[in-house]
Amino acid sequence: MIPGKALKKSARPAEKKRFYRKRVNFFPLLNKIKLWPSRRGLLHGIQSIEIRGQTATIVTHCGKSFTVAESRNSRAARWLRNKWFAEACPQCNIPRWKLEKYAATYFRKRWGSQLKAPD
Fold first, then answer.
1. Residue 108 CA to chain centroid, in angstroms?
2. SS3 assignment for the chain
3. How far apart (Å, rounded) are the C-alpha atoms in residues 111 and 59?
4. Rounded to whole angstroms, how far apart are CA atoms 24 and 65?
5. C-alpha gyration radius of the chain
6. CA-CA distances (angstroms) from residue 69 to 85, 94, 102?
């Protein structure tokens, strides 16, 4: 090290790896991630989720509203776990940090948070 010269630190720390259980309930996962993969492959940002028993009404940032059922095997649940999407919705304006955080998320069968509600 040269005297009088400070070491250059990176602007951002390394991405923290997040682990969630693979077979976690669908609604707590949606509440945590706040992303919805459409059938066309667009990834939408979720503005609000209203849970009513086994169904929930989701409103996205681009104004779309729809009702979904609680299912771990659904297309959307599988696509979220496997991170299958073509691109982010241009109308939802999902920030890059959120997409990077989602990319750094891992789903494991026997390891990770179960996303249970606090007692």
1. 15
2. CCCCCCCCCCCCCCCCCEEEECCCCHHHHHHHHCEEECCCCEEEEEEEEEEECCEEEEEECCCCEEEEECCCCCHHHHHHHHCCCCEECCCCCCCHHHHHHHHCEEEECCCCECCCCCC
3. 31
4. 24
5. 18
6. 20, 24, 23
Write out the two tokens for 30.
């949606």
Do the Cβ atoms of 61 and 47 come closer than 8 Å? yes
* pLDDT greater than 80 at residue 73: yes
Is the separation of the CB atoms in 66 and 113 below 8 Å? Answer: no
Question: Average model confidence (pLDDT) for the chain?
Answer: 82
In the chain, domain spans: 18-108
pLDDT tens-place string over residues 4-29: 555 555 565 556 676 766 777 889 88
Nearest-angstrom CA–CA distance, 54 and 98 = 27
Whole-number pLDDT of residue 1: 47
- Quick check: 118 and 30 in contact, CB under 8 A? no
